[in-house]
C-alpha cells in the first residue's frame, strides 16, 4: 500500500492514525466477515493482516464469520440440494451436521491458521462452546435455523483477556444439544451487543448505503436510527440490505457505540474505516454527534 510513498508521507499516515489508535486501544471491535472477502484469497489475506495489526496495536478484535458458499459447495458434493425460504437456508438434520462441519471445522480452523501464520494469536470457537450462543428454532419451515435467545460472552472475554483473537462461527445450540444454523449478521450483532463493543464492522459486497444503488458517489456516510428507519420507509434500503441494516440498528439499540457497513471488496477496508479520517462506508450511530 505504501509503494512510491516518501518517508514523510508514511509519517503522515501514521500521525493521522494515532488518535484512532488511542481511541480504540483496549476497546472491543467485532468484525462480521463474509461476502467476496471470504472467497477471494487476496482479499482474505488483507482482512487477516488487518485483524492482526489491530490486535497488535491494542484493539480487542473478535471475528464472527459465516460461510454460505462453502456450505452450498459441500452440500452439492454430497448430492444434497440447497433450499432457501425468505433468504434463509432450510436446514434439516443432515444439513445441520454439514453446517457444523464446514463452519466450526474447515472455515473456522482455516482462518485461525491464517491469523497465526501472520503473527496473530487466534482461537477458534463456535456458538456451542461454553454455551456462547443459546438458540431456539426460528421457524419450523426452516428446520434447524436458529433465533438467538442469549449470548453468554464470558468465553470471549476470557480469550480477549489472554490476548487472543476469538474467531467465532455462527452456530448455536439449545439446552437439549440441538445445533442451529444462525445468520452471521445476526450472530455478529448479538455478540457485539453482549460485549458492549466500541464498534461492529459489517463487511458486505457494496460500498455502504447508497441513495442511488447504481451510483457509488451517493454513499451515505453517516445515519442515525431515525434516518435509517426513514431510508427503509423511502425504499432506499431494500431487499437483502434490510435484514443487514436491521441487525446494525439492533446492535446500536443494545449499546454498541458505532456500526459500520463497509465494502469488503476493497483491500484493507477495515483499516481504512477504523484508522483514517475519511473512512470508507456507512456509519450507524444512535444519535447524531458533532
Number of helices: 10
Radius of gyration: 19 Å
Biggest sheet character? 8 strands, mixed
- Major beta sheet, strand line-up: 5-8-2-1-11-13-14-12
Structure, briefly:
This protein has 290 residues and is an alpha/beta fold.
Helix-strand layout with pairing:
Elements: H1 7-24, E1 28-33, H2 36-39, H3 41-56, E2 60-65, H4 68-77, E3 84-85, E4 88-89, H5 93-117, E5 122-126, E6 133-137, E7 146-151, H6 154-161, E8 165-169, E9 171-173, E10 179-181, H7 184-195, E11 199-204, E12 222-224, H8 225-233, H9 241-253, E13 258-263, H10 269-275, E14 282-285
Helix pairs in contact: 4-5, 7-9
Walk me through this protein's architecture:
The chain has 290 residues and is an alpha/beta fold. The chain has one domain (24-285): Acetylglutamate kinase-like (Carbamate kinase). It contains ten helices and 14 strands. The protein has helices spanning 7-24, 36-39, 41-56, 68-77, 93-117, 154-161, 184-195, 225-233, 241-253, 269-275, and strands at residues 28-33, 60-65, 84-85, 88-89, 122-126, 133-137, 146-151, 165-169, 171-173, 179-181, 199-204, 222-224, 258-263, 282-285. Strands 5-8-2-1-11-13-14-12 form an eight-stranded mixed β-sheet, with helices on both faces. It has a two-stranded antiparallel sheet with strand order 3-4. Strands 6-7 form a two-stranded antiparallel sheet. Helix 4 (68-77) packs across helix 5 (93-117) and helix 7 runs parallel beside helix 9 (241-253). The longest helix has 25 residues, at 93-117. The chain is globular.
